[in-house]
Amino acid sequence: EVQLQASGGGRVQPGGSLRLSCVSSGFTFRNYDMNWVRQAPGKRPEWVSDIDTAGGGIHYGDFVKGRFTISRDNAANTLYLQMDRLTPEDTAVYYCVSPGLDLWGQGTQVTVSS
User: Fold this and answer.
1) C-alpha closest to that of 59 among 79, 36, 30, 80
2) CA 90/CA 50 separation, integer angstroms
3) What letters, b where the CB count within 10 A reaches 16 and e where it falls short, cover 16-48?
4) 3 state DSSP class of 64
5) Are 53 and 31 in contact (CB under 8 A)?
6) Radius of gyration of the chain from its Cα atoms, rounded to whole angstroms
7) Are 25 and 99 in contact, with CB atoms under 8 Å apart?
8) What angle (nearest 5°) sits at the alpha carbon of residue 88, between those of residues 78 and 7?
9) Is the pLDDT score of 47 beyond 90?
């Protein structure tokens, strides 16, 4: 079965950090660019970051401002998102996405609150 399984979300205080992981299965992960997308309550999905197949081409949304780091381990079929200096505005469900397969993971909830 082709799927993406995200984990690592939780509740943190403003200024805290989380590391999201997304394990892929059922397809050749190293052949696909990958994205992180988030959706806050009542809002449209918002692109966060993307990374190319080799991990050399990386882009971030303007709101990231150097706080997040996307990476991947092709040997482990896993995508990561290190998030630092979190703010309440980062509260959302975070999804890993393979645009090439039009495949979304189930999402992991990130809540930033004091």
Assistant:
1) 36
2) 17
3) eebebbbbbeebebeebebbbbbeeeeeeeeeb
4) helix
5) yes
6) 13
7) no
8) 20
9) yes
Q: Residue 34 pLDDT more than 90? A: yes
Q: Where are the alpha helices (DSSP H) in 48-113?
A: none
DSSP tag of 35:
E
Q: How many residues does the chain have?
A: 114
Q: What is the pLDDT of residues 86-106, one digit of tens each?
A: 999 999 999 999 999 999 999
Q: Which amino acid appears at position 54 of this protein?
A: A
Which residue is listed with tokens 């990386």?
A: 58
Query: 83 forms bridges with which residues in the sheet?
Result: 18, 68
**Closest residue by Cα to residue 36 from 89, 105, 84:** 105
